Amino acid sequence: MVADLGSRVLIADRDSSLRQSLFSRLLDLDLFSDCVSNGNDALEKLGEVGYAVAILDITLAGPDTLQVIQKIAELDPATRPVVLVLAEQPEAARTLDVEIVQIILRKPIDIQQLAELVQSCVRSAARTRTAITASHAPGGDQLIS
């Protein structure tokens, strides 16, 4: 069972300094994140927590980035997170050839810009989640005049 803990962010990157910097910056924006360094831990977190955004390094070890993305694709489309892929060579990320990857960013990353992008994605995901919840609520299809 996946717990919905609000608008959380999954950060899966092998670079510990990037994870820590982004975690701190997102916390400043009142966004909570879970940080992992490999594909195994990312898959475990995806099974436990509902995320609004997943930030994935293209070179995850263990189950690779593609396998993590496939797991995200298996999640309920209504709650599927935005996926951002970080790559030193964007061409490598483009070879993933999967629809679920919304944005490919080239490393090195400007933490402030990435945090602002994540904040925007979280807001968008929250609006989508609210709209889906309202449409599935009893009487959600009725018009009030």
Structure characterization notes:
- The radius of gyration is 16 Å and the shape is globular.
- It has helices spanning 16-28, 39-48, 65-74, 90-94, 111-136, and strands spanning 3-12, 32-36, 49-57, 82-87, 101-106.
- With 145 residues, it is α/β, with parallel strands linked by helices.
- Strand 4, helix 4 (90-94) and strand 5 (101-106) form a beta-alpha-beta unit.
- Helices cover 44% and strands 25% of the residues.
- The relative contact order is 0.17.
- Residues 140-145 have low confidence and may be disordered.
- The chain has a five-stranded parallel β-sheet, with helices on both faces.
List keywords for this structure.
globular, 145 residues, 5-stranded parallel sheet, alpha/beta, 5 strands, disordered C terminus
Low-confidence stretches: 140-145
Q: Work out the helix count.
A: 5
Sketch the major β-sheet.
5 strands, parallel
Could you tell me how far the N terminus lies from the C terminus, measured between alpha carbons in angstroms?
39 Å
**What is the radius of gyration?**
16 Å
Shape: globular
- Kindly state the mean pLDDT as a whole number? 81
Question: Strands across the major sheet, in which order?
Answer: 2-1-3-4-5
